[in-house]
């Protein structure tokens, strides 16, 4: 599956200490999973959680699996990265990244521990310094795979409020999406903490898609379907994409670079977006078929 078309509509966190959640995730329709060793795991459970996630990481079929390690400055971070290198995870997610150097330290540990070339580094952007340095972070390593917004930590450090429209985060969201797109990285929106607020959850997904995120990070399985619906292309969007791809190809055959379809001007740039959308829809079908056979 091409990295660019990899579905990331819904990416579910689960504590590495929760064996039932790690098992349950095998049957859940999330596009990706974050097996957490950091904030969701109590200090006394960190070592056991590490062996749980390393054992589980290869058991989720084609879904993308990230292991969120503890920071390197903690007593567990270094050993988490070393253990993750030997797992079948697709990537290592570093919390609270604030500089390119923090990425390079993890990159060096991965190289020293023979992590496969395909194993990516993902960064949580969740502090003011992380946001301010996001472009440096984006180009820190060829192993970079993407960013995850950590809006809970960011709100704490910014001393801002979690509001319905999320206006306090908009500048950070825009900067991080720009950096991700400029350097060909994926980017996921932060979590919605109020599990009783279905309407607010859907609104934040709609906003996240409008802002350019690939998908949303989640804390509970009951939110997976709504995230998949909000971030996935609709049948109508796929049909429109196929129509304009065909119409533009026909126009090119006639030596034209533009065409009008249903009153709308279609140029090559629209075809590029349409092709991405069709590729994503196809990748979703492949992933859903894989889940159905799990
Ligand atoms: C929030 C929870 C603690 C709730 O757990 P629970 O009380 O067990 O929920 P339910 O009884 O409603 O669960 C129903 C079934 O679903 C399974 N389940 C629940 N949550 C998950 C999950 N995350 N992954 C997989 N499976 C899950 C239960 O086992 C039940 O199944 P069954 O046994 O068949 O009945 C819990 O949802 C939870 O722990 N969520 C994840 C919390 C977490 O990981 N937090 C850290 C990441 S968020 C973060 O750090 C943000 C970021 O860093 C920032 O700064 O913004
Ligand atoms: Mg956090």
Automatic annotation (TrEMBL):
It comes from the Bacteria. This is Citrate lyase subunit beta / citryl-CoA lyase. Its cofactor is Mg(2+). Keywords: Lyase, Magnesium, Metal-binding. Belongs to the HpcH/HpaI aldolase family. Mg(2+) binds at residues 126, 153. It holds the Pfam family HpcH_HpaI. Substrate binds at residues 68, 126. Gene3D superfamilies: Phosphoenolpyruvate-binding domains. The keyword Magnesium applies. Residues 9-221 form the HpcH/HpaI aldolase/citrate lyase domain. GO terms for biological process: oxaloacetate metabolic process. GO terms for molecular function: lyase activity; magnesium ion binding. The keyword Magnesium applies.
């Amino acid at each position: 599956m091409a990295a660019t078309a990899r579905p990331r509509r819904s990416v579910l966190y689960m504590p590495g200490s929760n064996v039932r959640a790690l098992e349950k995730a095998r049957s859940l329709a999330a596009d990706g999973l974050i097996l957490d060793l950091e904030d969701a795991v109590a200090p006394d459970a960190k070592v056991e959680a590490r062996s749980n996630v390393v054992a589980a990481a290869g058991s989720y079929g084609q879904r993308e699996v990230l292991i969120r390690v503890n920071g390197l400055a903690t007593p567990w971070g270094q050993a988490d990265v070393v253990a993750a290198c030997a797992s079948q995870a697709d990537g290592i997610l570093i919390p609270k990244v604030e500089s390119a150097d923090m990425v390079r330290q993890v990159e060096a540990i991965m190289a020293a521990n023979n992590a496969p070339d395909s194993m990516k580094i993902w960064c949580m952007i969740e502090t003011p310094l992380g946001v301010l340095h996001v472009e440096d972070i984006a180009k820190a390593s060829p192993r970079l795979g993407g960013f995850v917004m950590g809006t809970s930590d960011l709100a704490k450090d910014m001393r801002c409020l979690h509001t319905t429209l999320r206006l306090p985060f908009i500048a950070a969201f825009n900067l991080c999406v720009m950096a991700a797109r400029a350097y060909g990285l994926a980017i996921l929106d932060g979590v919605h903490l109020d599990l009783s607020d279905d309407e607010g959850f859907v609104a934040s997904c709609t906003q996240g898609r409008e802002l350019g995120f690939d998908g949303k990070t989640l804390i509970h399985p009951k939110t997976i379907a709504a995230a998949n619906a909000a971030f996935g292309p609709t049948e109508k969007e796929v049909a429109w994409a196929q129509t304009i791809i065909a119409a533009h190809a026909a126009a090119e055959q006639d030596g034209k670079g533009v065409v009008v379809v249903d009153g709308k001007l279609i140029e090559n740039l629209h075809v590029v977006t349409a092709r991405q959308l069709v590729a994503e829809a196809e990748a979703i079908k492949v992933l859903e078929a894989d889940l159905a056979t799990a």
